[in-house]
């Protein structure tokens, strides 16, 4: 070897390890677009099981997880095989028979937003970590604020990872408002929260997390379907006052998870205004009806709220999670995380607000982008049509059920949630067994709720592919399931 060649070998730059290779990205993306495109197409057409549920032990084998973890070496070609199996073994939210939990059927533009986040990771809780991402979030929050009916100048909010965290965040804002020294001194022991028993589990959890204790959640009297009896609210407040307690906030559902029924926001909101109480509206699921003129009335009075939670990852078709905490006065959210809102923080040279000052989270995902892309692509009207369509299809299911003597329903739906059961299989164990039978059968995935003290099957119409003929097939399948479990009693 000549000295010259030796020298040039030494001078050659090392291969850049860990960098993205454009050709590898392109090959991987080709696999992704083909596989995921096929997956959505098949799912929408109702081919494939709506949900698979092998055990982790079986799945670990099917997916060769241990080998991949031990040996590595996946590339575009083996990704193709892995992804194919992975998608087979999950739950298809685009499937017409997907009628289970309140998870969005993700729309195409939102999925692109997730990809952009995955690539860029602009974790912009500090403005300098992603000016565009932060500005997009501010814009969609302003849009949501305007839909609630508040002025954008004084109202504000933040997007967080889920409705549960959004409820906790709202409770922190309520706490700072009712007990300004709680940030440094802790939650006072006389604090109570009034909520209907039908409220989401995260309200009680939130009460425990912020140091109120879940025993401090005082149930508001409700009708048989779990809706707040407005006339009783002032009495409950007075009874608490006489016991030396102080109401930190009053919570109402829009709509309740188990039933999809809306509380009378106007009624509860007026009482809160009269008594000077913080009014929190949990519109995680049902807030999206604000986009539909014909449905907006269900949320009449929402503008009386001090805080509102509204999930984009339910009816606005983004992936899990993207939840808005909206407050009537911006400053209430800033005070939740500091004893005094420190405006200096916003007046330095960063160029924009640090959203970290409004949320429990440290770094923040680019949650606004996926909602923004859905809005930009489909338009507010397009999203509204989707919501209206799912509510209408659920109502149609209820009409079909009501027309059949062999089914019963506990109430007329106000959203896309419908409860029902076959009359000849009314028992709790039968609802559970029918649901299991349907999941094993593979055409339908239902949930289940307790309403008026007894268990029902619950259908939540989320997928745009669920149509009239799906509903007829569903009733036939449930009849078949009822035959299977009839002897259980
Ligand atoms: C879904 C839901 C929540 C919780 O939202 P996650 O995003 O699942 O944490 C809270 N309240 C209501 C009324 C809901 O429907």
From TrEMBL:
GO terms for biological process: carboxylic acid metabolic process. InterPro entries: PyrdxlP-dep_de-COase (IPR002129), PyrdxlP-dep_Trfase (IPR015424), PyrdxlP-dep_Trfase_major (IPR015421). Keywords: Decarboxylase, Lyase, Pyridoxal phosphate. Pfam families: Pyridoxal_deC. The keyword Lyase applies. SUPFAM superfamilies: PLP-dependent transferases. Its cofactor is pyridoxal 5'-phosphate. One of its GO terms (cellular component) is cytoplasm. The modification N6-(pyridoxal phosphate)lysine is found at residue 314. One of its GO terms (molecular function) is carboxy-lyase activity. The keyword Nucleotide-binding does not apply. Belongs to the group II decarboxylase family. This is L-2,4-diaminobutyrate decarboxylase. It comes from Myxococcus fulvus.
